[in-house]
Amino acid sequence: MELNDAQINFLASLVLLFLGLYCVVSKRNLIKVIIGIEIMAKGALLSFISSGGGNIQAVVIIVIAIDAIIAAMALSIIVNAWKHTKSLDLTKLTKLRG
């Protein structure tokens, strides 16, 4: 059985999605969770690119820009959580107030 390029790209995107999902579910550090979310986003983007289409390049550029904005906002939330709790542990965020 020989795999073509589209199947290889789809398998790579699935590996990235599951790797990111593992990172989100198993880690308690906020930065590692954000990295897992970013890995999942890149896996979804890879599957979108491998599916092809007419104006795929414009959509991919827009998605990358939106993903960068989301990462910057998540990191600002992490900095705020660090200021309040002096820890990046997810279990200590229950004490976070106003």
Please give a structural write-up.
This protein is an all-alpha fold. It has a single domain, classed as Helix Hairpins (Orthogonal Bundle). It has 3 helices and no strands. It has helices at 5-26, 30-51, 56-85. Helix 1 packs antiparallel against helix 2 (30-51) and helix 2 runs antiparallel to helix 3 (56-85). The protein is elongated and about 50 Å long.
Key descriptive features of the protein:
elongated; 98 residues; Helix Hairpins; 0% strand
Q: Can you give the mean pLDDT?
A: 85
Oligomeric organization of the protein chains: single chain
Count of alpha/pi helices? 3
Number of domains: 1
Low-confidence stretches: none
Give the second-level CATH assignment, the architecture. Orthogonal Bundle
List the helices and strands and how they pair.
Layout: H1 5-26, H2 30-51, H3 56-85
Helix pairs in contact: 1-2, 2-3
Short description:
With 98 residues, this protein is mostly helical.
